[in-house]
From TrEMBL:
GO terms for biological process: protein histidyl modification to diphthamide. GO terms for cellular component: cytosol. This is Expp1 protein. It comes from Deinandra increscens subsp. villosa. Keywords: Signal.
Amino acid sequence: MAIPVTLILLIAVVITFSTTPYSVESSSDNNHVFSPCADSTIQKSDGFTFGIAFAARTAFFFNSTVQLSPCDRRLSLSSGQLSVFRPKVDEISLLTVNSSNLQPDTIGGYMVAFAGRKYAARSIPAFVANSTYIVTSFTLVMEFQKGRLENLYWKRDGCSSCSGKSNFVCLNNQDCAIRTNSCKYRGGTVDCSIGIQLAFSGTDKHATVFNSWYEVKNLRQYSLFGLYQNLKDSLTGQYNSFF
Ligand SMILES: *[C@@H]1O[C@H](CO)[C@@H](O)[C@H](O)[C@H]1NC(C)=O
Ligand SMILES: *[C@@H]1O[C@H](CO)[C@@H](O)[C@H](O)[C@H]1NC(C)=O
Ligand SMILES: *[C@@H]1O[C@H](CO)[C@@H](O)[C@H](O)[C@H]1NC(C)=O
């Protein structure tokens, strides 16, 4: 795997939507690919490994022009950080990256989601934070065709989830941001852990259609935190009182 060894592997958490029926046993994960820099073809109920690299926007481009996968050796991402996740395919999951481990404004402020090698897919770089603003809620859609990852993209809600909320600023008509100095790690009161809502679209290797994207797409970014009961005391509660 080509990810520079100097990247720090973060402890990342995958929390599954608590009302998802647990009809699927963990033993039904038949995907034996655990590296985010290897190719896999998945079916419903498999786990799927992908990575999110945090770095400066320019670090994701080769020769300032071509955006490459973070798995590509030609990029020098040594100053960034990497999180690896393995959610269950087609389950609605929330990924969290705890701000005790990651202060995104100090490591470049952008993130790229990626998976695969020969069939490498990567998202465009998403702004997370600078010294003024931080965006803590994202929705990532993973699009598969016949079980192979084809595309990764950030779904924005045009700031509808924070319109009229005085603590939020709408950046570029797409991201709800708060001030970085509201974060606990900057002396404020908010746990600025990054939450990434995940949804799957397209088809698995048996051409079975994924449904989780359909379930997520009409919900607003921050309102999704309310779905995760085990986050109630940390992330959910604080955004409810913040709004
Ligand atoms: C980098 O970009 C410059 C200018 O666009 C070009 O001349 C050069 O060949 C490129 N280098 C590589 C290795 O692609
Ligand atoms: C992040 O980690 C800190 C310290 O371990 C903990 O107190 C906090 O609740 C965590 N936040 C989330 C969202 O898990
Ligand atoms: C932080 O990002 C926002 C939105 O892109 C921008 O308007 C602002 O100038 C940036 N601040 C700094 C200090 O870079």
